User: What shape does this take?
Amino acid sequence: MYRTHTCGQLKIEDVDKMVSLAGWVQRSRDLGGMTFIDLRDRYGITQLVFNMETDSALCEKARKLGREFVIRISGKVAERSNKNLKIPTGEIEIICNKFDILNASEVPPFTIEDETDGGDELRMKYRYLDLRRSVMKKNLELRHRMAQEVRNYLSKQNFLEIETPVLIKSTPEGARDFVVPSRMNPGQFYALPQSPQTFKQLLMVAGYDRYFQIVKCFRDEDLRADRQPEFTQIDCEMAFVEQDDILDTFEGLTKNMLSNIKGVEITEAFPRMSYSEALENYGNDKPDIRFEMTLHEISGLVKGKGFEVFDSAEYVGAICAESCSEYSRKQVDALTDFVKKPQIGAKGLVYVKCNPDGSYKSSVDKFFDQDALAGWASELGAKPGDLLLVLAGDKSRTLSALSELRLEMGRTLGLMDKTIFAPLWVVDFPLLEWDEDSRRFYAMHHPFTSPRPEDIELLDSDPGKVRANAYDLVINGVEIGGGSIRIHDKALQQKMFKTLGFAPEEAEAQFGFLMNAFRFGAPPHGGIAFGFDRLVSLFAGLDSIRDVIAFPKNNSGRDVMIDSPAKIEEELLKELRLRIEQAKA
Amino acid sequence: MYRTHTCGQLKIEDVDKMVSLAGWVQRSRDLGGMTFIDLRDRYGITQLVFNMETDSALCEKARKLGREFVIRISGKVAERSNKNLKIPTGEIEIICNKFDILNASEVPPFTIEDETDGGDELRMKYRYLDLRRSVMKKNLELRHRMAQEVRNYLSKQNFLEIETPVLIKSTPEGARDFVVPSRMNPGQFYALPQSPQTFKQLLMVAGYDRYFQIVKCFRDEDLRADRQPEFTQIDCEMAFVEQDDILDTFEGLTKNMLSNIKGVEITEAFPRMSYSEALENYGNDKPDIRFEMTLHEISGLVKGKGFEVFDSAEYVGAICAESCSEYSRKQVDALTDFVKKPQIGAKGLVYVKCNPDGSYKSSVDKFFDQDALAGWASELGAKPGDLLLVLAGDKSRTLSALSELRLEMGRTLGLMDKTIFAPLWVVDFPLLEWDEDSRRFYAMHHPFTSPRPEDIELLDSDPGKVRANAYDLVINGVEIGGGSIRIHDKALQQKMFKTLGFAPEEAEAQFGFLMNAFRFGAPPHGGIAFGFDRLVSLFAGLDSIRDVIAFPKNNSGRDVMIDSPAKIEEELLKELRLRIEQAKA
Assistant: This one.
């Protein structure tokens, strides 16, 4: 054993003990006859003291230690004269009588501090150094504790963690699969799972009525800022349950996590909101309900007054920003610029200042008198001192732009406190989405989602109207989980594939095993999957998932540390019977 | 909720309660005016009663239920007149007053019983039905509990579970990798990890001094009976430790598992045996020490007596089978046939019967008199009534054949009791293995294993003699885990790559990131990995790992249930810029 204690362990009670520690040199200071070194390991930092007077040779040697050298020391615990009460070991120091260098270190390419001077790319390339920073350690420790908590909670609820295969079969539905050529079956491929969906359904058919798994999933997508080609899900499924049973179970899990990990106690039930309500009131299907500022349609109040922009709009809607009536011209212009950004896409912004004196000042005074504006204010419940922000246009785009504007105002007004957790169930999603390009319906969740029984007859007459037994868990505007009650009837599943435009042979070739399974007594079942990376990052108060993943990939799906993907040996390609096509010039 | 209780829950205390249950029809019996149905779910079986007298319509309907129909029932708990004390719910039955068919079932292709009539292939194709059998449920429940136990134990010991990437980089060393073509980087590939080896070492460099992970690993090998292309490891690594610290830690884990899962208490330390001792005494590096019957070399006693087979042999060795002197001609012939099988490869078998009267009878009486045979018997500690079995030939092949013969005798004599667990550490493995074909050394474990410090100088002069700081955990002759102290010094790692015949550029291209990491303060570290599938199968008393895996693949690496691997769409191949070469005619 290289040490008797860790660098986070020794306290004032340990004074006079002979100890040995091992770790990294965090920093070193020479003060006259003394050299002080902060020794760091996973558990903390302990101050070492070398005294020129009592052992000059050792002290000279200690002065040569550079940052990030790995050393092992022995010495006696002593009380510090100037205590550092910010760290748990700050009351003591070690008077060293011996040390060995276990490994030297070159000067690291960036500082190993909470606020490092290393840019993103450098930190990714030297991820093993980046991971030494205590903020990164806290993230990975949090991730570990959360995974343990999930497992212990679900195990106590009789869930079994069952591993499903990673080498499965490719299906063209949904996102693009990563594939794995099979050497033993040349010309054939495995695929990596986008989720264990069909396997967990088969486990329900097999009678394992409470399944979960914390599991890696894979999606070969063009990566957006906060996506990774491999990501981790808490994947769950239950049999003999209805939607409410699933919501209750996983609401229990979420409350338990918030309580045990974050110390946040939520006693009341999570609010439930329909998809259409979410769209109407928040402009999107994952509302951040930490603050109100809901959307209000005012089309009825504003049309026919000669203002062409409103008159020609499918939808006119507004939000009310509290206590913002004194916004300057510059502030309002900045908001206008914000909504006109291409990714938001509004044409312009109309404002109404509800002045403290009860009067109104708007950018459309020419068309609307004080009474008209008072009507808007009343519709939005605005008080004197508030500011109304109005957007108009095509309904779906305007809802989405208003949603972005609302979030922007939430950020500006400090309404998005990261220590507050506001969970919400969004329910009653549509079953299908129409795609204008391919002129067909797509499953909004996936083809195994059950329509609501009362809507099944609409599948033939008006498929777009069919609601699904599907639900999302949203916390602070982040979609944390989603799931549904599944189809467990062979005929209904076949009908669903038909509605999605699958030829019967196609459905059989791809999902025949599942429909076969439904022939032998499939129980009613449903489930949910949580994005574990996102959940951890939410709990860590981070905006990105990258820093809760030990070795993430960059936006091109590349691991710059190990330099992967990479070319492989010709020999291996030959064994796989593959040839790489050169790009066309 | 479809039920108030599970089928394993209701007891005599529940008599008179109104309950509802849901599950599968296990079997059904019509006895005069009554119909009895055994209803099965994950938790057990409960007997349902339908009474023709009190509700003939319901009873008629119940009589039509086939095996594996999924039903939900309501009724009253009643005490059974003929109790079945073999099952926990055997004292009660449910007098049903209502039921619904939740799903019908065709007649399953094999019986859902512990002793099923389904062959291996059929069971694999309908794995979801096979998994309904209670023996399979017990296996998966055991696996779940073992995984939980590992996680809880290691977490309490301050280990962090940290996920390492699945999409990594291919390295030609070791077994063949599965590769994953990258669409975003055409012509380049990821590889699936054979183990998280380099990543866990980087975590040590990053300061996470106690890491573990229960993790899927992948190996594209021609599959032997008990191998799977994807398998699960308990992967562990520690920093600032020496070999003994690692053995102690994971001995603790193993004892805890044996105690908490199997109720087997082992208080003394696990025996430790050197690799060379294991080879000499047991003929292989994973001795089953549930029984003695060790190998003894008798070359010195037998040579030069004119028996050509012994005289020309590099090695002559024997085992002593207790109380087998009365073996018949037929039994001895069967043993001779056994050792002559091609996979064992001995030329023949010499026996010596130590007769109860103190005399000896051997197959080589012509060459060896009673005194000579008494000398052999004494060397092996044989008593009157024992049987000596002698093999001769090339040393390594003969050791291995004797080892097989020893195990065969152990099986025959009932010395391999599955309820006994005999763990053993095998230590002091050689660092390198010479391969005659390629005329180079290979790493016996992997290229990151540290030589013993005192043997480092032999790396230049006599590499084959260098011992490694490597160890295996063997239980009942099964290699459960293996690991080593790793190299943490850049220069030594480079020397090791050179010894293994890597050109410097090659080593740099493949493992540059690791050697780079060693430049920045790598601590001494080491670890171990357990084969989780094998550990579970050992605990379950099974001979194969297949039945502790929910969805295993067959010996051609094929999942016959989902029919994978399979062809993929041309479109996807094109996006990956790959072409499949046709097989040569």
Remarks:
- The domain at 291-412 of chain A is CATH 3.30.1360.30 (Gyrase A; domain 2).
